[in-house]
Structure formats: C-alpha cells, structure tokens
Amino acid sequence: MSKAPASKFHIWWLAIRPKTLWAAAAPVLMGTAMAWDDGNFHLWAALAALFGALLIQIGTNFANDYFDYVQGADTGERLGPTRATQAGLVNPETMKKAFILVFAIAFISGLYLIWRGGWPILAIGLLSILFGILYTGGPYPLGYNGLGDIFVLIFFGPVAVGGTYYVQALDITTPVIVAGLAPGLISSALLTVNNLRDVHTDRDAGKRTLVVRFGIPFGRIEYLISIIAACLLPILLVWMTNDNYYSLLTILVLLIAIPSIKTVFQISGDARLNKVLADTGKLLFIYSAVFSIGWVL
C-alpha cells in the first residue's frame, strides 16, 4: 500500500484521482473543437461544460471510494493506488457527504447550461449524476454487474461530446455523436485496464466485471479493440463530412499506444498495470488534442 499522504489536501487530492479527470475533459475539448469548426463556439458554455464535467467525475470518484469500501471491494489486498476510505484516511460518512456535496455543486453550476440548452441538458446532467452514484451504489451497481463498460462508453463518449456541442450550438449533428464514440472507447479501455489489474480481488468481492465474467483474454481483446477503433474512427468521420482530413492524424496515436497494448497482453492481476492505467489516461488526452486540432485545421 502507498504511504499515507501527509496533509488533508493530499488526502483529498488522492481521493479526487486526478489521473481520471482526462476522461471528463477530453470529450469537452472535442465537442468544443467541433462547435468551433461549425462556427458555433461559445466560450462561457464551453467553460461551464468543462467545470460541470470535472465536478461530476470527481463526485463519481468520491462515490466509488465510498461504495467500494462499504461493499467490501476495496481491501488491503488491492493493487491500485490507495483509496482514501479503505485506507482509513477519510471517514466513510465524510466521504458520503463529500460526494453528495460535489454532485450538488455540479447541479447548481449546471443551471446556466440548463437555462441555455433546456430540458436535454437537464436530463443529461441528472442522468450523469444518477449513474455516477449507481456505478458502484444502489441495489444493482453497474460496475459490479458488467455494465460499467457500457455506461462509460455512452456517458464519457457521445453524451459528453454531444452535450458539449449542444450547449454551444443549440443543435446536434450525426458526426458529433459518432466522434463521441472515440473518447468513450478510450475511457472504456481505461476501465478495462483497471479491471484486468483487479481481476482477482474483484472476483473475491463478488464484483462481476466483464473481465471476471468472460476472462482475462476477453479483457485484453476489449482493450485492443477499443484503442484501435477510437484511432481509426476519424476515417468514418472524414467519409461522412468529406472534410476535416487532418483529423486522420489520430491514426498515429496508435503508435503511442503500442507499449501499453504489449503490457496488457503480457500481465494481469498485477500492480504494474497502474502505469498502463496512467499511460492510457495520457493517451486519451493526446487523442483528444490531436483530433481537436486536426478537426479545426
């Protein structure tokens, strides 16, 4: 287990899980780039979308920290980074209050976006918060029953990219929804690495992720396909728009992913996958940056 942080700031910074925040920021960047390219960029809506996405991600991380501890999934045998509640750094009731507070702030800060975008944004916001809790909480936790991958693909993909575009353009297009699949796929790859690392402790805790259900080889193939599909997706988008050719540069991101892919196919149930987890998070940021720049050129 990692050494306990020395201050409250470090404890809460640990609980925020900063390396996961790329999953929230990447689709906002892509949705904003596509709005810019269509002449619909709106600065305040883009900033509000980014702020709200980060808060919902943080609230979800806090909720996961709390519910994984309560349901016994986080134990002293975990191979991942230290979890604040499980390590005794934060009282469970304090963590519960923290995720409720963060989600409340996210909703309040999203009122501007609801005013601007109407009921579709209200629905997206409420569902994002609800599923952030139900991911590891409630009577049928999504992450404990193999549905986490679908949730991540949809909400960190088309919903996030489409929602960001919509609050700026007040409209939506098919290419935007299709483009949203890319960050959703890479975020799913992030989850797959997490599940490959924790496959043994998840199985013991009754957490039936797709890797636990279908085996380690399935998880490895899922990771590979998710990365490849995301990097090749702009080919379909260029065909759809007959434009935005520079977005094809995302194909080169595959080269950066090769070391992580090799590691995933070599090991499982091992703390060394923590590096792959961090590298896949960086890959998501690089992908979103390359795609966004390429899309507007």
List the helices and strands and how they pair.
Blueprint: H1 8-16, H2 22-37, H3 43-70, H4 92-109, H5 111-117, H6 119-134, H7 148-155, H8 158-169, H9 174-179, H10 181-197, H11 199-205, H12 210-214, H13 216-241, H14 253-264, H15 273-296
Q: Write down the Rg.
A: 19 Å
Instruction: Tell me the fraction of residues in β-strands, as a range.
Output: under 5%
Largest sheet: none
What is the H/E order? HHHHHHHHHHHHHHH
Number of strands: 0
Give helix % range. over 70%
Q: How would you describe the shape?
A: globular
End-to-end separation: 46 Å
Arithmetic mean pLDDT: 92
Number of helices: 15
Low-confidence stretches: none
Supply the number of structural domains. Answer: 1
What structural class do you assign from the helix and strand content? Answer: mainly alpha
Name its key features:
mainly alpha, globular, 297 residues
Q: Can you describe what's shown?
A:
This protein is mainly alpha-helical. It has one domain. Helices cover 71% and strands 0% of the residues. It has 15 helices and no strands. It has helices at 8-16, 22-37, 43-70, 92-109, 111-117, 119-134, 148-155, 158-169, 174-179, 181-197, 199-205, 210-214, 216-241, 253-264, 273-296. Helix 3 runs antiparallel to helix 4 (92-109) and helix 7 (148-155) packs antiparallel against helix 10 (181-197). The chain is globular and about 50 Å long. The chain starts with 7 loop residues before the first helix and ends with a helix.
